[in-house]
User: Fold ABC transporter ATP-binding protein from Mucilaginibacter psychrotolerans.
Amino acid sequence: MGDIAIKVENLSKAYQLGDFGTGTLSRDIERKWALLRGKEDPFLRVGETNDRSTAGSSDVVWSLKDINFEIKKGDAVGVIGRNGAGKSTLLKVLSRVTVPTVGSVKIMGRVASLLEVGTGFHPELTGRENIFLNGAILGMRKHEIKKHFDAIVDFAGVERYIDTPVKRYSSGMYVRLAFAVAAHLESEILIVDEVLAVGDAEFQKKCLGKMGEVSKGEGRTVLFVSHNMAAINNLCNKSLLLKHGLLQDYDDTRVIIDKYINSGKESQAEVLGADIQVKKFCSRAIFCALRLVSSKRGITTNFATDEEVVIEFEYEILVDNTILSASIHLIDNMGTCVFSTFNGPSATINVDEFYGKPLVKGKYKSICKIPPSFLNTKNYSINAFLVPENMDDLGIAEEVLSFSMEETGAMRKEYTGEWWGIVRPRLYWSTERM
Assistant:
């Protein structure tokens, strides 16, 4: 296992619902004897996957089922999945908080884990005493803890309260100190669950920076669970995707995030009339149609990076003399707004003769064109807006269209990696000999 930090083979974790007994004393004794010998429970029925959205017939639920993967030393690995996918259960098994029902987990090195706010803290002890207690639980010697003590207190920002019992700490102070202890102690593997949501934005940024330093600078292995895809993307080079307790994929983080965000969501190239899901209605106008068009191939959800993306926006004015503009937000697969635009002069290179003028009742079409070689190779969605003079009367349709950009053959020859950034504009370049 030279360069392997964690190896998981055929891992499954089952939870019993309702009564834990088998029904007879003899079978209870047989089960206990099998478990004492390290054998599988002979009366554990093969239950159902961990799908909370449907009712089941079995009293056994597999929180994890047949999980296999290897994590190399120094890798930062994201664990991605929707609520109930098995993320926290996986981290608890890896942290040895709970044992697997079936399968094995091999871990090379000491593990520091932060699974819940204040895990391992004794409320009656002070912050100082809890630092030494946590260190001892992680297998650190007293002199090792002393070496990092000042750095832990400084990172957590709780110096003034270090000799105060932690039961008087706020939840934010709890998590600051808990993370600081886990990150600074000399463990080879750092496991962090979605606890950073408790901290403020500045502290979250500080934590992500520290985890990056731990992984890239110190060569330690990091496992990180989060619903923040931008944080996962910035920190982790690899990611696991879990769904209903099953491992869907283990790949480069960008690939996994794309798969996660687009799972269960179909690309939409055209939506008409009543099929447009409107979040907020405008009293003066309604959406009639929204579509994505390629000048070469017509209505489509797939565009090459070197072709123009055309967005057609049809709407009907319901009240005479309405002054209204059409607007879109382009959202990338991280949920980031790439840009917002509308048909007014500050956002267009041409003059839209209808902008800013009172419109009579009837149907209108606004067209927005995104130039070639502008968008990166990602999946995108479009939020559409009808914006009258009274901004409170907005019409909003969120993620009403979605599409993907794909690299062209010529570009693949020039550069085979991923282009950094949200957009990829063509800018003026020249080279001359000095």
In short: The chain has two domains: 4-109+188-262, 270-414. The longest helix spans residues 201-217.
